[in-house]
Amino acid sequence: MDIDCLTQRDKAIFAIRLAEKANFYLQADNQNMVKEALSLCWKWIETESDLGEELYFFLDNEENGFTLLQEFEEDDIKTSAWNCIIDAIAIVSRMAYEKMGQRFFPEAIEIVDDGTFSHMISALIFCNDTEKDYIASVYDACLKEQ
């Protein structure tokens, strides 16, 4: 699977779709927050508006930031689901920042690159090995969109 074959838009779609799947592995009370963040990711795809900071806030805030929730998660599968979700939102956040011409990013966003996709894919597969088929089908659908 070569992520470089996808357009920026399709990379974002691919990331969001994997995060949507990973969200099923979380507890119901966290799923709604993730859905809200992913809805904002979809909004960015549609509008390409200045949402980088808003997306980043879902990842890193002191009350219920996703990185904080992931850090305190004790279940390995849920931790991996959080990893996938955090990666996806970070990817779209970086794209949003870049689209607005920003050259400097928050530390968690600074490290995002195409290699983040490998981490995200591995995290979803850790949740359940059968997710490989889902990942392949989403990738193929993104390729066909081009």
Short description:
The protein is an all-alpha fold and 146 residues long.
* Low-pLDDT stretches: none
What count of helical segments does DSSP give? 8
Mean pLDDT across the residues is 94
N-C termini distance? 16 Å
Proportion of beta-strand residues:
under 5%
- Portion in helices: over 70%
What string gives the helices and strands in order? HHHHHHHH
The gyration radius over C-alpha positions equals 14 Å
For the biggest sheet, the summary is: none
**Structural class based on helices, strands and sheet pairing:** mainly alpha
The tally of strands reads: 0
Shape: globular
Summarize the structure in words:
- The chain is mostly helical.
- It has a domain at 33-47 and 70-146.
- It contains eight helices and no strands.
- It has helices at residues 8-23, 28-47, 52-59, 66-72, 76-99, 107-110, 115-127, 131-145.
- The longest helix has 24 residues, at 76-99.
- The two termini are 16 Å apart.
- The model has no long low-confidence stretch (mean pLDDT 94).
SSE topology sketch:
Blueprint: H1 8-23, H2 28-47, H3 52-59, H4 66-72, H5 76-99, H6 107-110, H7 115-127, H8 131-145
